[in-house]
Amino acid sequence: MSSESSLRILHKTSPKIFQEFLLKLEKNTLYNFNPFGKINPSNVSSIVEKELFRKDKIKFFSFCENSLIAYSYLTKFQKKSKKHNCILGIVIGDKWQGEGFGKKICKHMINYAWQKNFEKVWLTVFDNNTSAICLYKSLGFEIEGIFMNDEQYLKKQRHVISMAIFNNKRNYVNKRKKIWQNIE
């Protein structure tokens, strides 16, 4: 499989296809991406229904070889002072990971965000998800902060890294350093 295969990114899919995709995600993938909590056959239809009808998310369903291979989204902030920002989320099906699809899909979403006049795309990633962190850095995301023991999953504390990319292409590394110096 290659990311050069016919990747199609759509804004809609059927609930059945989305449910099947979520139920196929393996334990490690769910450990690194799971804003829905536990996913199982008894709750997946409720999760899908809520997700498909959310108005604050611009949804992307990525298909290759007629299979849903990824679900991703840009979440719009409701707070007026943050409407220029959005949050990126993405999960690639296990069979399709490591094939370059994540980079292509993220590039598509970032370009979409700039076309919609967002100024900043923000995301969070768990500190142990080093392949995702490398991917985001390769796309130009910068680390904004680390939240220690920020989330708990399966009774285990997890550290969360905040990352962002800016439409104005500025590198904020030096500005961040200066702010840290001023508050220390």
Automatic annotation (TrEMBL):
A Pfam family that the UniProt record links to this protein: Acetyltransf_1
Residue span(s) of domain N-acetyltransferase: 15-159
InterPro entries according to UniProt: Acyl_CoA_acyltransferase (IPR016181), GNAT_dom (IPR000182)
UniProt-listed Enzyme Commission number(s): 2.3.1.158
RNA-binding recorded as keyword: no
GO function terms (MF aspect): phospholipid:diacylglycerol acyltransferase activity
Domain of life (superkingdom): Archaea
Keywords assigned: Acyltransferase, Transferase
Protein name per the record: Spermidine N-acetyltransferase protein
